Amino acid sequence: MQWIKSITVLFVLLVGQATISARQHIIRPAVGDQAPEIVMANPSGKMLQLSSLSGKVVLIDFWASWCRTCRTENTIIRQAYHKYKAQNFDSGRGFDVFSVSLDDDREIWMKAIFDDKLVWPNQVCDFKKWDSPIVQTYNFRFLPQNVLIDSSGKILAKGLYGKKLGEYLAAHMAE
């Protein structure tokens, strides 16, 4: 009977350790975390802050002109922007996009913004490509990448690609 108690205690300890280890391996920032501030220059050189969009639901979109998948995703994001920018949600009033480019050439970046008809004003880039500190801050290794935040900057969702973005926004509209 003693060996059963010993095995049970060992099992409980192993499960507890596995739970602690799993929590330590959550990729940060995670859903529920506060989104780290982003401050970068827009195409005219003016510094923009993510926090300036407080009060709105915001898609932080990490992309680059040289990323084919990003360019395809831009069409979907543009459609969502036009459809939801004036809508109210259970977690914010209005929808906006904060696009962060990993480009290293200003002219090519500007051409991609124009060609893809990215009309929202929040376009930023530090021209450091993968050496940009934002890559480490938001902990991603591929493009495209996106994070949806609420009116207070809390992360609601990550990786809303294709129709998932529109589905999420539609499901969380205020009544």
What letter string, H or E per element, gives the SSE order?
Answer: HEEEHEEEHEHEEH
Name the helicity range. 25-40%
The proportion of strand residues reads 15-25%
CATH hierarchy class name: Alpha Beta
Q: Can you list the strand order of the major beta sheet?
A: 7-6-3-8-9
| Tally of individual domains | 1
Largest sheet: 5 strands, mixed
Tell me which CATH architecture applies here: 3-Layer(aba) Sandwich
| Mean pLDDT value | 90
Helix count, DSSP H or I runs of 4 or more residues: 5
Number of strands: 9
The CATH topology corresponds to Glutaredoxin
**What is the first-to-last residue Cα distance?**
60 Å
List low-confidence stretches.
Answer: 9-16, 18-24
The CATH homologous superfamily corresponds to Glutaredoxin
Global structural class: alpha/beta
Rg measurement, Å:
20 Å
Which overall shape is indicated by the principal axes computed on the Cα atoms?
Answer: globular
Can you give a write-up of this model?
The protein has one domain (29-171): Glutaredoxin (3-Layer(aba) Sandwich). It is built from five helices and nine strands; from the N terminus they run H-E-E-E-H-E-E-E-H-E-H-E-E-H. The protein has helices at residues 2-24, 68-84, 106-115, 133-138, 163-171; strands at residues 39-41, 47-49, 57-63, 88-89, 92-93, 95-101, 123-125, 145-149, 155-158. The protein is globular and about 75 Å long. The protein starts with a helix and ends with a helix. Residues 9-16 and 18-24 have low confidence and may be disordered.
